[in-house]
Amino acid sequence: MAAAGVPGDRKGILERLDSGEVVIGDGSFLITLEKRGYVKAGRWTPEAVVEHPNAVRQLHMEFLRAGSNVMQTFTFSASEDNMESKWEDVNAAACDLAREVAGKGDALVAGGISQTSVYKHHKDEATIKKIFRLQLEVFARKNVDFVIAEYFEHAEEAVWAVEVLKEAGKPVAATMCIGPEGDMHDVPPGECAVKLVKAGASIVGVNCRFGPSTSLRTMKLMKEGLQAAGLKAHLIVQSLGFHTPDCGKGGFLDLPEYPFALEPRVATRWDIQKYAREAYNLGIRYIGGCCGFEPYHIRAIAEELAPERGFLPPASEKHGSWGSGLDMHTKPWIRARARREHWENLLPASGRPFCPSLSKPDA
Ligand SMILES: [Zn+2]
Fold first, then answer.
1. What is the helix, strand, coil percentage profile of the chain, to 5?
2. Which residues surround ligand 1, an ion (CB under 5 A)?
3. Confidence band, pLDDT 50/70/90 cuts, at residue 10
4. Within a domain: 283
5. Domain that holds residue 203
6. 209 C-alpha vs ligand 1 centroid, how far in Å?
7. Annotated binding residue at 208?
8. pLDDT(3) > 90
């Protein structure tokens, strides 16, 4: 076995995707650790990696056990513009935690950067690229396996991020937090994907802001855009673990329930099995999640795609496929739920008779 930090015999991200393997991403950190008391909503910065490393380590462990092949560094918003002097220690500690856990299984470490707070005020390319480069220098020093530019709402800034990330000579993935209507300057998803690939990204797609089915609609548009331009790239989707059919262009941020009352929208594990199957059928081979996407959702991806992958994750030791564990139950009406047809066709009740099923976005 390779020592932690030296994944010598481990296949890299592009080797895996080039050979047609399914790569399972990880899920929610900020939203999940906020609920557990380690992240403050509003700022959404990840100082938990230094303040409460065990909380972050445990969440990485749960995703690994659920089947994740990628441990993303918990470095969302951990840039100099958001965290001042703390940014460097946070990035270094996040890399160490991700590497420590990745070494316990078949996972790679991905260094992640996200959109800056600067872009919306002044589109100064040199200043913004300098911010990205600072985080990248830590990732390079810590020798992450690949890098991800994620959560970009403007194609232009995402392209700048990819151009900087390319400098480290590692594979680059890029995901935008956009829906089918495109980025905040009305650049359609297909055109965003083309720009990212031309800038040097090998893996492109979407993350966050929209639920599973909306994210897959956006991915279909990205795929069609790449095909029309004659470009080849691997596809990645990391959707919310919340359903958002009523969202406008801004995604779940504009819902009145964001961020403290989203629970009625949580996807079930069966919803996520459907998402994994549809993503796979669309040709997406890097499938994971973002906010609200818990370890059991990741396990649902691994279980749905077990026939293709040939194995189940460790967490499936405690989960019979399609509810089969219930066949041991003493009550016959519960035993009767130990079958695929029950869970696949169920319309789960919300238990909230006075609630609407959809909201009106604020923006
Ligand atoms: Zn997210």
1. 45, 10, 40
2. 208, 290-291
3. confident
4. yes
5. 13-312
6. 6
7. yes
8. no
Residue 2 C-alpha to ligand 1 middle, in angstroms? 32
Asked whether the CA dihedral 30, 35, 36, 37 is positive or negative, the reply is positive
- Distance (angstroms) between ligand 1 centre and the Cα of 57 equals 19
Read off the pLDDT of residues 304-313 as tens digits, 9 standing for 90 and up.
Answer: 999 999 999 9
Residues pairing with 72 in the sheet? 110
Instruction: Look at residue 268 and give its three-state secondary structure.
Output: coil
Task: Assess whether 323 and 265 both reside in one domain.
Answer: no
Tens of pLDDT along 223-275? 999 999 999 999 999 999 999 999 999 999 999 999 999 999 999 999 999 99
Number of domains composing the chain: 2
Between the CA of 254 and the centroid of ligand 1 the distance, in Å, is 14
Is 192 annotated as ligand-binding? no
**CB-count burial class (<10 Å; 0-12, 13-18, 19+) for 228:** exposed
**pLDDT, average across residues 46-74:** 98
290 is in an annotated binding site: yes
Q: Same domain for 339 and 221?
A: no
Residue 9: its pLDDT value, please? 75
Question: Is the backbone of residue 180 left (phi > 0), alpha (psi -120 to 50) or beta?
Answer: alpha
Classify residue 6: in a domain, yes or no. no
Same domain, 343 and 307: no
CA of 325 relative to ligand 1 center, distance in Å: 32
Specify whether 207 is located in the same domain as 339.
Answer: no
Q: Separation of 331 CA from ligand 1 center, angstroms?
A: 40
pLDDT of 162-217, one tens digit each? 999 999 999 999 999 999 999 999 999 999 999 999 999 999 999 999 999 999 99
